[in-house]
C-alpha cells in the first residue's frame, strides 16, 4: 500500500518504550491496553494496518477492531520486527 501510494493508516499498538526504540513514521500510536478508550481517533474510511512487535497483540487488536465496525482493519504479520528485517532495515530490531 505504501509503495503504491494507496490510502491507508497504520496503527501501532505497542507500548511507548517500544515506540522509542523503533517506529514507522506517520503511524498512529495507541497502546493495546487503552485502545477501547481511544478507538474514536481511528479512521474507518481506509485500510487500517495494525502492528505490534511480532504480530500477536496486533492480531488481537485487529479482531477487536473488526468487531467494532473497522471492516478494513488488517494485521501486519510479523509486526515491526518483520518490517524492519524485510522492508526497512534502517529501523532498530529489538
Entry summary:
The protein has four helices and four strands, in the order E-H-E-H-E-H-E-H. By secondary structure, the chain is an alpha/beta fold.
Q: What would your notes on this structure say?
A:
With 94 residues, this protein is an alpha/beta fold. It has one domain. Helix content is 32%, strand content 14%. It has four helices and four strands. Strands 2-1-3-4 form a four-stranded parallel sheet, covered by helices on one side.
Range of helix content: 25-40%
Query: How many separate domains make up the residues?
Result: 1
Q: Which parts are unreliable, with pLDDT below 50 for 5 consecutive residues or more?
A: none
In spatial order, strands of the major sheet run 2-1-3-4
Helix/strand class? alpha/beta
**Tally of DSSP β-strands:** 4
**Rg over alpha carbons:** 12 Å
Shape: globular
Amino acid at each position: 500500500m505504501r509503495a503504491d501510494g494507496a490510502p491507508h493508516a497504520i496503527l501501532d499498538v505497542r507500548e511507548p518504550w517500544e515506540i522509542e526504540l523503533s517506529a514507522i513514521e506517520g503511524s498512529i500510536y495507541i497502546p493495546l491496553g487503552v485502545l477501547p478508550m481511544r478507538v474514536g481517533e481511528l479512521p474507518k474510511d481506509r485500510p487500517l494496518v495494525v502492528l505490534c512487535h511480532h504480530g500477536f497483540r496486533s492480531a488481537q487488536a485487529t479482531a477487536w477492531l473488526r468487531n467494532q465496525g473497522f471492516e478494513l482493519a488488517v494485521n501486519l504479520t510479523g509486526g515491526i520486527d518483520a518490517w524492519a528485517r524485510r522492508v526497512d532495515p534502517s529501523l532498530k530490531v529489538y
